[in-house]
Amino acid sequence: MRVVPDTDSDGRTTALRLARDLCGTRATVHCVGFVRNNVSPVEVDYPWPTPEANFTVWASDEQITREGSWVTAFTEESPLSDRHWFPLLAALTGQRALQYTVEA
């Protein structure tokens, strides 16, 4: 994960740098989708802009070449499954099982 500077309007440049850091200099990225979070009421420890946090989710098809502790992202048991953008992964895997509805 990286913080996207204001000069990177859609996050593509930051996502590409991250992909190349993890996968090598030939890595490319593609847009998976877009997330709009409406947060109300705001909790004191909520770390993102409010009342709306809009962002783009990027992916790379390259294999990670850096050592580290990596988690699976393509199952409902994934530690990432509570993230707002998790349903977008269904587009990468074609698995309808990853689709879910967030209660308001």
Structural overview:
- The structure is a single chain.
- The chain has 104 residues and is an alpha+beta fold.
- It folds into 2 domains: 1-65, no CATH class; 71-104, no CATH class.
- Helices cover 16% and strands 16% of the residues.
- The protein has helices spanning 12-23, 89-93; strands at residues 30-38, 52-59.
- A two-stranded antiparallel sheet has the order 1-2.
- The relative contact order is 0.17.
Arrangement of strands in the largest sheet:
1-2
- Mean pLDDT over all positions: 76
Query: What is the N-to-C succession of helices and strands?
Result: HEEH
Stretches where pLDDT is under 50 for at least 5 consecutive residues are 95-104
Question: What is the CA–CA distance across the termini?
Answer: 26 Å
Tell me which oligomeric state these chains represent: single chain
Number of strands: 2
> Given the helix and strand composition, which structural class is it?
alpha+beta
The general outline is globular
What about the largest sheet? 2 strands, antiparallel
Rg measurement, Å? 15 Å
Give the percentage of residues in beta strands. Answer: 15-25%
* Proportion in helices: 10-25%
Total separate domains: 2
The helix count comes to 2
